[in-house]
Amino acid sequence: MSRASRDEEFSDFVAARQTHLRRIAYALCGDWHRADDLLQTALVKLYVAWPRLHRDGREEAYVRQILVQANIDESRRPWRRERPGLDGLDPSARDPLPVEERSALFDALQSLPLAQRRVVVLRHWLGLSVEETARELGIAPGTVKSHSSRAVERLQAVLTAR
Amino acid sequence: MTDTLHDELDAAFGSGPAHRPVEVTLGAGRRALRRRRVSALAGAVAVAAVLGTGFAVSSPGGQGRSTSEIAADPSPMPSPTSVPAVDEEWSKGEVVRYADDGTLQVRPGVEVHERIENPYDFVPPERSDALDLTFRGQRTWAILTLDRAAGEEGLQFGASMATPSNGWADFAHYVADQVSVDRGGSGAPSGWPGTLRLTAEGEVVPTSGTEVLQRTDDPRLGDRFAPPGVPTGAALLRAGEERRELFVVWRVEGGVLEVVTTPIDDPSANLVGATFAELLSWARGQYASGEGLR
Predict the structure, then answer these.
(1) Among residues 90-119 of chain A, which lie with CB inside 8 Å of chain B?
(2) Closest Cβ opposite residue A124 in set B2, B93, B95
(3) Does any domain span residue A93?
């Protein structure tokens, strides 16, 4: 595969899916900057493995798997950022973050332990089955069910309290 | 409930700020691909050397010190004066650059605390530098590369910037670790003294030479530090050749002890003189906010 065709296909994929993928990252970590970093890390890995993954049609599943399996709360290396200048001084610096209207439900999601949060995102937001969620997280289906049960109970309490 | 929850979650937050330009991701992806190819090439060179073929080496990593030697001896060069600031036109956001003749140039106003020359052991005209710098009050660890991608013409400039972190004891260990990882290795030591160890019985105990000043095995650092049921702890220690006072927190997951170290004698951290209770309270806040201690 030539570099030009890899870049073109990759760019098309990023343009089409980055909003959805970054929302997944944000749902998991609750911070847009961190979500940007997580997505960037995942996309760089995707670029390296692009020919194989694109051929198999597994681009999105691959990125999603990296996002949900990232050690979100603390990790030693992934925060090494590739950026051309210092924060706030770069001509391509993004706009300031908008005032996000985070709902009580989103805050409740963030208050869940990470394992439960991952299950909620995959199972109840992205619509994966119990078995698919278990496979993606590398845990037993029974564990998915118990995480799901506890998490949904807490989230339901928020919904009914409104 | 599931359908309702799906819809409620979907509506619970927006799409966030503008995305990074795809060119930024493409550039990082190309550099990652190049590093992987270079790493594979270095592996092939190593095999050839073992076989005694007299392989002529001209690629990065093939001459000079080996990766492990870099990790142990990154040759730091404290040099606020060895990298003269150049008062030519600088683009917005541009802090350091290589001139056409390969000279490293630093923007006026940038204070270089430490420079590690050629951490990647590139052969000219390829170059690399690592800089611990401050610009407009922002301390940054930067790694710069000017190198040629495998199979491509021309040199490409790459810059990685990171906020200093307690994940490493100092800048030199950070650079050595990044170089190792970039070359496909498993990383280099963090530089912090090995203060604690896990016994066969699963107990966390101090290593020889480590003095425990205070300790708790119930630091209550929250789920963001470790899930319920995972053994955790915190301690105030005196350790290492310099007998520095260190605040450490730890967790044992999957039979692996992970220790997060924070020096409390660093004035920039505002922890000098803090009591153990205050350190614990600070750590809880750091993890509750998602910031962590690194």
Answers:
(1) 90-98, 100-103, 105-106, 109, 113-115
(2) B2
(3) no
* Number of structural domains in chain A: 2
- Look at residues A62, A93, A74, A63 and name the one whose alpha carbon lies nearest to residue A29: A74
Claim to verify: residue A60 and residue A15 sit in the same structural domain: yes
Give chain B positions within 8 Å (CB) of A133. none
Task: Give the per-residue pLDDT at B269.
Answer: 64
CB-based contact, A58 to chain B, within 8 Å: no
With CA atoms as reference, report the closest residue to A77 among B186, B83, B107, B7: B186
Q: Dump pLDDT digits (tens) for B113-135.
A: 999 999 999 988 889 999 999 98
Token pair of B126 as six digits = 């390829």
b/e per residue B67-99 (b: at least 16 CB within 10 A): beebbeebebeeeeeebeebeeebeebbbbbbe
In a domain, A90, yes or no: no
Give the E-state strand segments of chain A in sequence order.
Answer: 81-82
- Check whether residue A8 and residue A59 sit in a common domain: yes
Q: Are A81 and B160 within 8 A, CB to CB?
A: yes
Extents of the domains making up chain B: 22-182, 196-288
**In this complex, is the C-beta atom of A65 within 8 Å of any C-beta atom belonging to chain B?**
no
Q: Which domain holds residue A55?
A: 1-73
DSSP B12: S
Q: B196-198 and B204-206: which strand pairing?
A: antiparallel
B15 touches chain A (CB under 8 A): yes
The structure tokens 């592996």 sit at B43
For position B189, what pLDDT does the model report?
81
Residue B81 to residues B106, B111, B115, B128, Cα–Cα distance (Å)? 11, 9, 10, 18
Mean pLDDT over residues A136-143, rounded? Answer: 87
The answer to whether the Cα torsion of B207, B211, B215, B220 is positive or negative is negative
Q: Under an 8 A CB cutoff, do B294 and A76 touch?
A: yes
In a domain, A117, yes or no: yes
